[in-house]
Amino acid sequence: MRFISLDFETANRERGSVCQVGLAIFEKGSLVESKSWLIKPYNNYFDDINKHIHGITEQHVVNSPSWNDIWPEVNNYINNSLIIAHNASFDISVLRHVLDIHSIRYPTLDYICSYLLAKNIWNDLLSYKLSYLAKIFKIDLNHHDALSDAIAAGKILLRGMEALNVSNYKELQEKLCLRPGSVYERSYITPQIKKIIDDIEEPQLEVNDGNNPFKNKTIVFTGALGYLTRKRAKKLVERCGGITKTSVSKKVDILIVGEADIEKYGEGYKTNKLKKAEKLLRKGHKIELIGENDFLSFCHWAEDKVSL
């Protein structure tokens, strides 16, 4: 299977203001070639926020080629190819806008989105940002460098294919009921995935910090959670090395309480699980009560602590 991973950085809020493009060519499961170009945008104007995001300024591109200069080489790679991009709607929109600005005919290509793939393959992750997925899968990433982002998106596709146990594009399409997006002269179609995979093992959050409160602990939830579904909350605990159970017993270490129930708990209301936990506490068993907000705070902390 051959595909090309693509990423753009833009100089300002205009989609056609390309200042960097990165291409990563994958064949038979391996990165075989990569290319990137710094580009002088057609208006050569950089917004401060864009400069803050990717670090590219007017000075970096003062002697760089224009889009017209590099397009023939880029086109040789992507025309009639399968393209992968993370948040592909953005990158494909950038491609169309910069071609429109320079009155260049569109190439013909199919494309798929690694964000959309990840969301349907691993459907209970805390985030699907490229930086988060790179941490989870231990992919080196210099985020917002177009080449590094392109390589990471391609590797995420490969991880997804491995998780699905598929080896080629046709099998990937069948497994996910995937209809790729397409670009053709002055028009395009967005990609669609019609099947969410429920039986894929979630990647483990390797939180290398002694402050991980869930590792090797048995956890039970009680009350309605306001932000996460119960299923997703359990998955997050398990991915941090914890074990989830449905009832309170002597073996339970932590009881996580929905925030609305925590408030009512302070006013005297108790769920049956809370009542049982209190009885065990009176008998000397150690069970820690954690509110939903504290649980969510840990989840966001864990996102930053995932080992590279």
Plain-language structure description:
The chain has 308 residues and is α/β, with parallel strands linked by helices. It is built from eleven helices and 13 strands. It has a seven-stranded mixed β-sheet with strand order 3-2-1-4-5-7-8, with helices on both faces. Strands 11-10-12-13 form a four-stranded parallel β-sheet, with helices on both faces. The chain starts with a strand and ends with a helix.
How would the blueprint of this fold be written?
Blueprint: E1 2-10, E2 18-27, E3 30-38, H1 48-54, H2 67-78, E4 82-85, H3 88-101, E5 109-113, H4 114-121, H5 130-136, H6 146-164, H7 169-176, E6 178-179, E7 181-184, E8 187-189, E9 192-193, E10 218-222, H8 230-239, E11 243-245, E12 254-257, H9 259-266, H10 272-282, E13 288-291, H11 292-305
Parallel strand pairs: 1-4, 4-5, 10-11, 10-12, 12-13
Antiparallel strand pairs: 1-2, 2-3, 5-7, 6-9, 7-8
Helix pairs in contact: 4-6
